[in-house]
Amino acid sequence: MNFSSDNATGVAAEIMAALAAANEGHAMAYGDDAVTKAAEAAFTELFGRELAIFPVATGTAANALALSALTPPWGQIYCHRNAHIEEDEAGAPELFSGGAKLALLDGEHGKIEAATLAAAVAGAGFGVQHHSQPSAISLTQATEAGTAYDPDEVAALAKIAHDAGLSVHMDGARFANALAHLGCSPAEATWKAGVDVLSFGATKNGAMAAEAVIFFNPDAAGDFLYRRKRGGHLFSKMRFLSAQLVAYLRDGLWLENARHANARATELSQGLAALDGAHLAHQVQANEIFIYLPEAVLGALETGGVGFHRWGTDGQARFVCAFNTEPDDVARALKIAQDAL
């Protein structure tokens, strides 16, 4: 009963099979292979437009390298105070950008509000040599609170950014989970709403190690080949990254996996929230649950073999469901929690 993280799961059978198939024979190195070309075609079809796609192996690399292409060393990147690029990437965006500054914005339930961004941009000091110069905004989809920006929210933020000359990056480590909740198309959630560059995640949703940096304007990706190489993410055997992405998108596996994870999270959150003394910290809109639970329940879950994370010191806990979370595991965890009371 491991609800600690969607990084703790294995690899989807379809993706493991694709890796085995890619292992047959020889292929040209550094992305000049048929599988990587197939991945490029699959993403072009998925988003319904010409784009530039660059497979990398980690979400941190995807975010940091993408942001380095959008901001100069003296630039400023707006993000939520609890964004992954701020709290969990060990300064990688600052390193790969050559020193750009993260400007942290507050917002309820993991989201940046349009009014907050507008106020920050208005007081940014454009052209003042003593100030970092605003260059980009990074949105996390789904957010670090397990919530999702709808396309109208993204569009409102993107308009403010673009009107001020800023680019829009989206950290989509859990993009599939957000899209499964929103029910819109990938295009509507990204470039049609004003997103310029997407870090498209697959590892948390069934891949072994595969992400992609997607530029919706290929002309803006002119030097990214060199950034990826310099950052150590131009894999010589690129077909093994690309094979994961092709299998991930084939027949809608990525959304099927995400819907499964979201459904288990909904079941688990509803059962936990029904307990006396429990209440959710945020709406459950993807596959993460943040909830306040009585200490008796937290202790019983820990001793009963249920993996989760205590979140702070005030009784909040985080549970994460994955593409292969079993309904029986949800039921067993809820039984332990109910019995504790």
Number of helix segments? 14
User: What gap, in angstroms, lies between the N and C termini?
Assistant: 20 Å
User: SSE order, as H and E?
Assistant: HHEHEHHEHEHEHHEEHHHEEHEEH
What's the total count of β strands?
11
Shape: globular
- In spatial order, strands of the major sheet run 1-7-6-5-4-2-3
CATH architecture of the largest domain: 3-Layer(aba) Sandwich
- What is the structural class? alpha/beta
CATH top level label of the largest domain: Alpha Beta
In terms of DSSP E residues, the strand content is: 15-25%
- What is the name of the CATH topology of the largest domain? Aspartate Aminotransferase, domain 2
Which spans have pLDDT < 50 for at least 5 consecutive residues?
A: none
Q: What is the count of structural domains?
A: 2
Largest sheet: 7 strands, mixed
Could you give me the name of the CATH homologous superfamily of the largest domain?
Answer: Type I PLP-dependent aspartate aminotransferase-like (Major domain)
Q: Calculate the mean pLDDT score and round it.
A: 97
Q: What is the alpha-carbon Rg in Å? A: 20 Å
Plain-language structure description:
With 341 residues, the chain is α/β, with parallel strands linked by helices. Helices cover 41% and strands 16% of the residues. The strands form two sheets. A seven-stranded mixed β-sheet has the order 1-7-6-5-4-2-3, with helices on both faces. A four-stranded antiparallel β-sheet has the order 8-9-11-10, with helices on one face. A hairpin with a 7-residue loop joins strand 8 and strand 9. Helix 6 packs parallel to helix 7 and helix 12 packs parallel to helix 14. The longest helix has 21 residues. The two termini are 20 Å apart.
